[in-house]
Write a structure and sequence with these properties.
Elements (H helix, E strand, L loop, with lengths): L11 H12 L4 H15 L5 H16 L7 E6 L9 E5 L4 E6 L27 E11 L2 E8 L14 E5 L4 H7 L11 E2 L3 H8 L4 E5 L3 H6 L8 H14 L1
Helix pairs in contact: 1-2
């Protein structure tokens, strides 16, 4: 469940800032590898392709006007819901703050999520890059509103009420009893025992990256294909609308 790891002497927040400044001059590859190595060392069970995509999307977002995050959450929806598939990183200190269970939408799949949507009422999860905004107390208790930053992929998240909230059906007991956790209406719901930590770490403009190896999205995502000016213009417009 939630965990704390040893602190790395390299500041990943600073490393990302340096990486971004060097990217404009074509010297990013070595720094990119260093950053990925530090994060990978903190989260050895996070797939390299997922981590690489999360860092790439973060770099692109910051290069295009999104505020530098202090923390980054990565959710790997290619893993079954019975596994801890959410990681939260402190980019300033280089710590892995938490790894835990996270739910997908009931119409995205059973044990594994396979279908994703940006449509209201679909009860499916969305993939892509999100910004965590304000915390609030609602029907599910303490929760966090999310704004999707990718046009046509997740930018209706707020309209769809896609939020991070706690749920009784997200717990190791459910995995023991049913072989999976319960499913949401599309929200990345988490264990009630960690909801306050998750929300407090991600509110106020931190980034959340949700991954699935959907080839159409991987090839068309504005944040994973940052050299496409037209796509980034659309993404920048979405960021302006959601700020």
């Amino acid at each position: 469940m939630s965990l704390h790891t040893k602190r790395h002497p390299f500041s990943l927040g600073a490393g990302l800032a340096v990486l971004l400044s060097f990217s404009a001059h074509g010297n990013a590859e070595a720094l990119d590898n260093e950053l990925l190595d530090k994060l990978a060392g903190a989260a050895p069970y996070l797939k390299s392709e997922v981590l690489g995509a999360a860092v790439k999307a973060t770099q692109c977002a910051v290069n295009n006007g999104v505020a530098m995050p202090e923390r980054l959450a990565v959710i790997d929806f290619s893993l079954p819901s019975s596994e801890e598939r959410m990681w939260i990183f402190d980019l300033e200190q280089g710590d892995l703050l938490l790894r835990d269970l996270v739910a997908h939408g009931k119409n995205s799949g059973d044990v594994e999520a396979r279908a994703f949507s940006n449509i209201e009422g679909s009860h499916q999860s969305s993939i892509g890059l999100f910004k965590g905004n304000e915390s609030y107390s609602g029907a599910h208790g303490y929760a966090l509103r999310l704004d999707g930053l990718e046009p046509g992929v997740n930018d209706l998240a707020r309209q769809r009420a896609i939020v991070i909230h706690g749920a009784d059906y997200v717990s190791p007991n459910w995995v023991a009893d049913y072989g999976r956790i319960g499913r949401s209406h599309g929200c990345p719901a988490v264990d009630r025992k960690v909801i306050r930590s998750v929300v407090d770490n991600l509110k106020g403009g931190q980034l959340v990256f949700t991954y699935y190896p959907d080839q159409e999205w991987l090839q068309s995502s504005s944040f994973l294909n940052c050299d496409a000016p037209a796509q980034m213009a659309e993404a920048s417009q979405a960021q302006g609308n959601n700020s």
